[in-house]
Amino acid sequence: MQDRPTPPADAEARRALPPVICYPTDTLPAPPMALYTAARAALRATGNVLVPPREAATFRVPAGHFFRIRSVGGPQVGDLNLWNVKDLSERFYSGKTRALHGTHVTTGDRLWSSFPHLRPMATITHDTLGWYGFDSYGGSVHDVIGTRCDPYTHNLLSHGGQYHHCCHSNLTRALAAETGLQPAEAERHVHDVLNVFMCTGFTRDTGQYFMKASPVRPGDYLEFFAEIDLLGALSACPGGDCSAEHSSDAAACHPLEVEVLAPDPAALAGWASPPPNRYDRSHGLGQ
Known about the structure:
The chain has 287 residues and is an alpha+beta fold. It has one domain. The chain has 6 helices and 13 strands. Strands 2, 4, 5, 8, 9, 10 and 12 form a 7-stranded antiparallel sheet that branches. It has a 6-stranded antiparallel sheet with strand order 1-13-3-11-7-6. The radius of gyration is 20 Å and the shape is globular. The model has no long low-confidence stretch (mean pLDDT 96).
């Protein structure tokens, strides 16, 4: 066991210092939720994808359309990747989304893209699990803290085990099939996820990432507005509702549905996709 250093005399005073929010969002451009609410009042389904258990599937959403990730069949969590359909280097940035909105996201929060673009890719417009909040364990749903179950960590923790239906591998296969990229190239584009429906948090005593049974039930959905043209990939996690374990064939798993919906174009009059971040990219080196 590692020795713990002797605390200084003012240890409690140091611990008692109040926290400061790193990124106050008062000046962050607010999404036009009233516009989105009006637009979603008359939506027309234009596409539907069923994601099989322990697999992933891709889908495309034009800018200005909505998409819903829905629970069907039974409690199931999903791992979501998003890319700019025209440029895979612009992808969902879970870390910055977490820094701006917190560990878990819900209605009114946005999914932000990677540097140098740093703009909204999608805005959450409805969440049927928005009632959950934070439970007594500090758990909540739709986290941007977990990375995704992957074969490398599984191999490390299982002393050499080979498991190919974890979310990282599922997303890799789905992206390769959609784009024609070789698997090794597709894998480079797979990134940290939004854990849709997953109930997670950090233990208060050790600070460890935990999961617990998701409160999702068939019919629940998380709805987004596509701010740019999107390519998405969703994995139906091999952990099922993540009440016990992941990266195994033991958990009961169910499909997930992705539905793409078009609003009346007139309802979005005046709306336009957000431009890329306006930082000049000189990094103090001049032009």
